[in-house]
Design goal:
single chain, alpha/beta, Rossmann fold, 2 domains, 4-stranded antiparallel sheet, binds adenosine-5'-triphosphate, binds magnesium ion
């Protein structure tokens, strides 16, 4: 288990055009609990503090305050040889791969084992074993410069795993790769996670990466955790604007433009339509519920926008709909009883009155 307890990282930065300096919080009171064998995503915009956070886990960066525990060891209490030994329990991969250009693939994977003092024959066995796991065994004699991006990252993963770490830290490992290669590298990370029971912390600015393989996610904004929880929960009921913005291209739940100037009222009215934004996920599929509602309450439904996506093959989505008819409130009660997340936008003129 990985635990960050109230971790802050402060840099002393120079004010522009002045000799004054001030404290800049790259991380501010970050607390996280990551379970063994989890794939934990950290998402945030550029400059949010993602790299700083992941570097604080293996103490490549020492937190200014707070504690970091990795599998019961307090990393922040260690230094020197004991810290170097503890750091070997975590492997790390990077966006720019960070391979040694003058060493072959074999030499790159062997490098951390040489540093850890393994003997030649042990190294040979381990390099072959790990190269086969990441499916790069036919490239062992090649130099990194001749490999594709996806192959380079496979070598990066092999090197990170060579020492049999408990934790894999990934800092934008797929950001330099095309979508197809990204998928195959993510699949590899998930396979390794399952096969070796490795805990993974995956840093990204792409919501699709989180959606593809993570169990839990933390949204980082200006060095602080804006929200965290299971991916399904955070992505289907985002509470903070930072999260909503990141999701906006996936859940396009905005109202149509023709609604922009419309006045919505909270007061029920017979003659106006009730506009709702309904989110659903998993077993609560929206379509059968909507048709049952239409039958039971004799309302008409006009779907204004709909978007459905999948998180680890669980469907989730949002519908924006207008209800008309005499028992709109009954229909609303029914939707709420169904445990759908319903946001009442309000009552407004009939859609026929709206100029599209
Ligand atoms: N050594 C440093 N000195 C001063 N400021 C720093 C230092 N390292 C990082 N920062 C600042 O801390 C903030 C967080 O940086 P960090 O690299 O962790 O962001 P990030 O979320 O990884 O961004 P990106 O997505 O661009 O990689 C940034 O504003 C950055 O300028
Ligand atoms: Mg970064």
């Amino acid at each position: 288990m990985i635990r960050l307890s109230d971790v802050s990282k402060v840099y002393r930065v120079k004010e522009p055009d002045s000799r004054e300096t001030r404290d800049f919080y790259a991380l501010k009171g970050v607390s996280l609990d990551i379970g063994d064998g989890d794939i934990f995503g950290v998402i945030g915009r550029s400059g949010a503090g993602k790299s700083t956070l992941v570097r604080c886990v293996n103490l490549l960066e020492r937190p200014t305050s707070g504690q970091v525990f990795v599998n019961g060891t307090e990393m922040t209490a260690l230094s020197g040889a004991r810290l170097r030994a503890a750091r070997r329990r975590t492997g790390m991969i990077f966006q720019s791969f960070n391979l040694l250009a003058n060493r072959t693939v074999y030499g790159n994977i062997a490098f951390p084992l040489e540093l850890a003092g393994w003997n030649k024959s042990e190294i040979r066995g381990r390099v072959r074993e790990i190269a086969s796991l990441v499916e790069i065994e036919d490239k062992l004699g090649d130099y990194p410069g001749t490999l594709s991006g996806g192959q380079k990252q496979r070598v990066g993963i092999a090197r990170a795993l060579a020492n049999r770490p408990d934790v894999l830290l990934s800092d934008e490992a797929t950001s330099a790769l095309d979508p197809q290669t990204t998928k195959s590298v993510l699949r590899l990370i998930r396979d390794i996670n399952e096969k070796l029971g490795l805990t993974v912390i995956l840093i990204t600015h792409e919501m699709n990466v989180i959606k593809e393989i993570c169990d839990s996610v933390a949204v980082l904004e200006n060095g602080e955790i804006a929200e965290q929880g299971p991916v399904l929960q955070v992505f289907t009921s985002p509470r903070k604007n930072a999260t909503k913005e990141m999701l906006s291209h996936v859940i396009n739940a905005e109202l149509p433009e023709s609604f922009a100037g419309l006045e919505f009222s909270r007061t029920p009215s017979r003659d106006s339509d009730l506009t709702l934004r309904v989110s659903f996920f998993g077993s609560v599929a929206a379509t059968p519920i909507v048709s049952e509602m239409v039958r039971k309450f004799d309302v008409d439904v006009n779907i204004l926008s709909a978007h459905i996506d999948h998180i680890k093959s669980v469907p989730f989505g949002t519908l924006v709909m207008q209800l008309s008819g005499s028992d709109k409130e009954g229909a609303l009660e029914f939707l709420l009883d169904m445990k759908l997340r319903v946001e009442v936008i309000g009552y407004a003129a009939r859609s026929a009155d709206i100029t599209h």
